[in-house]
């Protein structure tokens, strides 16, 4: 049974463009979306710094055009892709972790993504406290489905900085499903996503288009002017919203640059042309999610739309065509649905709520989790992608050398066969192993909690040695876009990975056979019956195999290892057989 927490609990949709906070009201048996101090039900995820103060939300957004380089907005998980379009400055920090540089009260200040997120969360907490007229200590926070383990940890860290106990982190589509139906059991079958398919990414395409349009008409490049870019971005966002209900609009900015106005019409057709590549990516992700869930589109009963971009007519049209004319569900507000679901989950975990809705939620892990095995760099999956969480899996491994006293446990997430092609989450050593032959059993356990946060432990039973790691956020995090890339690479490189695995298996088979040969040659009963020239022949075969295994394997193909294995087996088994031994009986 889930742990329950004392005190008020809210649900927060920490969005890249707008954020929203909601609470379950026991007396009315429903969720309330909480309006902010400006009377709005959503708040810009925007933070600004001036010579006098820090501003968050609407106040920060309202002064963005006049203070662009010190106003932070947007998706912090994708700095490198968007920084050319952002007016604020992004610099490398410790370990090349991106940091945002702003000027605050006359001094340069460097901020991490977690710090910026915590400021927005602080604002959401204050909005909730003003509405409830009581302290708010607990929250359920929503993250994109493809957030990695370390990004979830970062979100928890941001919550802690904001003074919140983050009771649970759940995925956006899961929260939306909760909002759609409160009295159901929700089992997540699969998740797929890309944080670069949101409203801001459509805005970026429009900004790029009008930068080039302004340059063509006026022979002036505004791409290096933060103030002009910010004003243009605001105009593009307004135009995008208008085109959700109108077939054309005007993008107009007075005195955009050097006193020259921007005035240009934009049709819905042109908007769709600019963003068609992104719209198609949306459909590919929907298709991939159904494939992962092993579900045919004809078996889908309801398609629920959430998020502001779901209002775009082309998105709705493509979805309807994809699901063969099925009506799309628009019964819940797409801007508020995710916070709504978070508030329901918060109510289920709160001691203060006496009449919480009856709901069972079974979420999943978005990427496969495992360790690298042997010196061959193979990813051995312990918890496959789309496994229902919480989850606890234990696998048995063996030492790779005689009298091995320690092993390194390298923990990865991803879908590639080669371990180092995936994302390294962390590593630790298990020491104090007993002196024993190769293959001595070791146990590795992966435990994922309800937030999708991972703990990995390893132990050996003879000497009772044990070590573990909870994956921490002490390195640059893997962005949702990078996670999507890893998953796509797993599909694109299936042939390459299959070849790598075939070669790794061939090398492992040769190594294992040679190890058994070496072990047999240490047996005095065998040695005493072999002729000197037979022993020399075996030693020569072993040396040839070891040279092949220990040399530069990058240039070797699988056939060389298979051929070598056939040769050493032929030599050894022939010698064993003529001396009355069966190698197969030796272990």
From TrEMBL:
The answer, when asked if Lipid biosynthesis is one of the entry's keywords, is no
The protein's matches in Pfam families, at most eight in alphabetical order, are given as: HSP70
Sorted alphabetically, the keyword list is: ATP-binding, Nucleotide-binding, Stress response
InterPro entries per UniProt: ATPase_NBD, Heat_shock_70_CS, HSP70_C_sf, HSP70_peptide-bd_sf, Hsp_70_fam
Does this UniProt record's set of keywords contain Nucleotide-binding? yes
Q: Which family does it belong to?
A: Belongs to the heat shock protein 70 family.
Q: Under which name does UniProt file this protein?
A: 70-kilodalton heat shock protein
């Amino acid at each position: 049974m889930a742990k329950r927490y004392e005190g008020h609990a809210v649900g927060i949709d920490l969005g890249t463009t707008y954020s929203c906070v909601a609470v379950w009201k026991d007396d009315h048996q429903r969720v309330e979306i909480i309006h902010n101090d400006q009377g709005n039900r959503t708040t810009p995820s925007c933070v600004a710094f001036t010579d006098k103060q820090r501003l968050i939300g609407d106040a920060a957004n309202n002064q963005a055009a006049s203070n662009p380089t010190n106003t932070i907005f947007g998706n912090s998980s994708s700095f490198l892709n968007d920084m050319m379009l952002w007016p604020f400055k992004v610099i490398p920090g410790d370990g090349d972790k991106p940091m945002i540089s702003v000027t605050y009260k006359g001094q340069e200040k460097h901020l991490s993504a977690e710090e910026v997120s915590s400021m927005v969360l602080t604002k959401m907490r204050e909005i909730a406290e003003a509405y409830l007229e009581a302290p708010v200590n607990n929250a359920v926070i929503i993250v994109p489905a493809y957030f990695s383990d370390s990004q979830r940890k970062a979100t928890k860290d941001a919550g802690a900085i904001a003074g919140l106990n983050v009771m649970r982190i759940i995925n956006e589509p899961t929260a939306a499903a909760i909002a759609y139906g409160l009295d159901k059991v929700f089992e997540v079958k699969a998740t797929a996503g890309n944080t670069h398919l949101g409203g801001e990414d459509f805005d970026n395409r429009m900004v790029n288009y009008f930068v080039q349009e302004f340059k063509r008409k006026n022979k002036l490049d505004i791409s290096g002017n933060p103030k002009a870019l910010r004003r243009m971005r605001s105009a593009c966002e307004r135009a995008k919203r208008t085109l959700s209900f109108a077939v054309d609009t005007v993008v107009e900015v007075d005195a955009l640059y050097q006193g020259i106005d921007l005035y240009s019409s934009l049709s819905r057709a042109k908007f769709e042309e600019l963003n068609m590549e992104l719209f198609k990516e949306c459909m590919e992700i929907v298709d991939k999610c159904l494939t992962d869930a092993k579900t045919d589109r004809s078996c889908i009963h309801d398609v629920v739309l959430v998020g502001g971009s779901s209002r775009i007519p082309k998105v709705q049209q493509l979805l309807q065509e994809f699901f063969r004319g099925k009506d799309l569900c628009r019964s819940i507000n797409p801007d508020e649905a995710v916070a709504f679901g978070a508030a329901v989950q918060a109510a289920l975990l709160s001691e203060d709520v006496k009449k919480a809705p009856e709901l069972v939620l079974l979420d999943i892990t978005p990427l496969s989790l495992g360790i690298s095995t042997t010196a061959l760099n193979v990813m051995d999956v312990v918890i496959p992608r789309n496994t229902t969480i919480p989850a606890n899996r234990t696998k048995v491994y063996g030492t790779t050398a005689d009298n091995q006293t320690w092993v390194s446990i390298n923990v990865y997430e991803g879908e590639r066969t080669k371990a180092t092609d995936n994302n390294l989450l962390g590593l630790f050593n298990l020491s104090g192993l007993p002196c024993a032959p190769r293959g001595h059993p070791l146990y590795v356990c992966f435990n994922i909690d309800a937030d999708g946060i991972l703990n990995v432990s390893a132990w050996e039973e003879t000497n009772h040695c044990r070590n573990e790691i909870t994956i921490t956020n002490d390195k640059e995090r893997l962005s949702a876009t990078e996670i999507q890339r890893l998953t796509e690479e797993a599909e694109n490189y299936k042939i390459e990975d299959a070849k790598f695995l075939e070669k790794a298996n061939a090398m492992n088979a040769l190594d294992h056979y040679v190890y058994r040969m070496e072990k047999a040659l240490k047996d005095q009963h065998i040695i005493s019956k072999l002729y000197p020239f037979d022993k020399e022949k075996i030693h020569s075969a072993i040396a040839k195999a070891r040279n092949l295994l220990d040399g530069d394997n990058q240039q070797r193909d699988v056939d060389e290892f298979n051929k070598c294995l056939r040769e050493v087996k032929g030599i050894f088994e022939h010698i064993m057989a003529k001396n009355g031994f069966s190698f197969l009986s030796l272990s």
